[in-house]
Amino acid sequence: MNYYIFDLSKVSQAQVRAFLNDKARANLTGGIYLWVNQNNGHFYVGSTLNFYNRIASYFSLKGAYGIILKALIKYGFDSFTLVLFFVSNVTREEVLHLEQSVLDTWKPEYNIQPCANSSAGRIMSEESKAKLAAFRKGLNHSEETKAKISASLLGENNGRFNKGTPIYLYEVHSSKFELSASFPNRARASTILGIPASTLFNYIKNQMPFKTNGVECIISYDENLDKDCFHYR
Prior knowledge:
The structure is a single chain. The protein starts with a strand and ends in a 13-residue tail after the last strand. The radius of gyration is 22 Å and the shape is elongated. About 5% of the residues have low confidence. The strands form 2 sheets. The protein has a 4-stranded antiparallel beta sheet with strand order 1-4-2-3, with helices on both faces. The relative contact order is 0.12. It has 2 domains: about 160 residues, GIY-YIG endonuclease; about 60 residues, no CATH class. The chain is built from 8 helices and 8 strands. Helix 1 packs antiparallel against helix 2 and helix 4 runs parallel beside helix 5. By secondary structure, the protein is an alpha+beta fold. Helices cover about 40% and strands about 20% of the residues.
């Protein structure tokens, strides 16, 4: 089993398609895939016998549904890392069991159903059992895959580390706002300030004052926030 990691903030959809075409010419078309959100680490697992068609359908938003569709629309593809696990000569039965192994082992947040489509109750061949056992062993006993995925989401390895819309932190004084810090994006601000991303988003959207290190603050996309023109909500 081989796997490949694509940071979609650095790799174009056309490059992914070209890669999948090359794999198809080598008769590698099936396996499982992960969509990993670089902002929060949440992910989705799916399985396929035709990687090119399946991933292309996601890029057009026709193959996604439920929570993962909402996440792809909300965050954009360049906020995701795509991980592809290729299994040679794989059957539909096998990819469903492999998908189920990931569901059971890693508990992906974006999967609505806890069970892979209709894999339960089928009798597996000895060859299929061997493939599944090898895959499960890799999930349970090796941290290499998870470490590589995690590394692609952290620090400067994350393509969005210094990208995005800057935001600004102001200390609230009686007569003015004083600029205290700036951040390249919400994700960095959330990490540095120790504020959950959803909470930080509400602070910005609703112009809500909050305290950090005992100091009342306001956070905004406005680089020159003027207290005289500011209205608390």
